[in-house]
Amino acid sequence: MTAPLRHDGVPHPNEELLLYQTLVGMWPLDEEELPSVGARVMQYLEKAAREAKTYTSWIAPNPEYERALLDYAGALLRDGAFCADFTRFQKRIAFYGFLNALSQTVLKATSPGVPDFYQGTELWDFSLVDPDNRRPVDYERRSAQLRKMKGGVDIATLLRRWHDGRVKLYVTWKTLSLRNRLADLFRDGDYAPLDAGPNVCAFTRSFGGVTVAVAVPRLTTMLTKPGVVPLGDAWPETSLPLSGSWRNIFTGEAHAGEEIPLRSLFASFPVAVLEPR
Q: Which of 235, 247, 163, 143 is nearest to 196 (CA)?
């Protein structure tokens, strides 16, 4: 489809693949942001090509090669057939990206070590490297959404409207609030993995007689079709090997017994952090 857009071997297949992967990762969920894609991609490609130092570099730039590379990217984004095919694929990938992002947010906030939250990433952020990641952050928007969220949240609505990013803000708020309450546990607590099958990453953190359990999905393309959040019966009849009495900080749901079925653990929300009841 894109072969006619290439000229004199530019781009190299590695650069072409990099461009496709970059577009999949940074394509906006909000169509109002689409006009900015072209300029942002051009800045990124120039930087990436120069820092790869294969055909051009900062010290010895190759203007002819760079011009051909950027011309290809521009032609690609103006190609109607490519864009139509690409966006169909990207929408499917973006859904699983949303699920992975929730898992990663929970993991970095609860795993051993110090979590790094880059400015503005409380909501979805598709920034590329500088200067793209130096764009101003709308802190007032985030603050207003958090204030409203603290007044009450319908998690089903958050999941249904995952595109707006509030579900990530909610997960960030809840996990960091738990870290604040149990600072010693997350700073100095022990880590122990839990085996709940191939589709779950799970572990406990323990300190001073207090334990917190974490469980998040992985490989979610194995569980549901694009657009279907893996909840309830989407999960196999497997359990989290965790006994006791627990409360999910995201849903308020209680769990008790010798183990927790995944269908129950993920009945209404796709990630779980459990604290003792």
A: 235
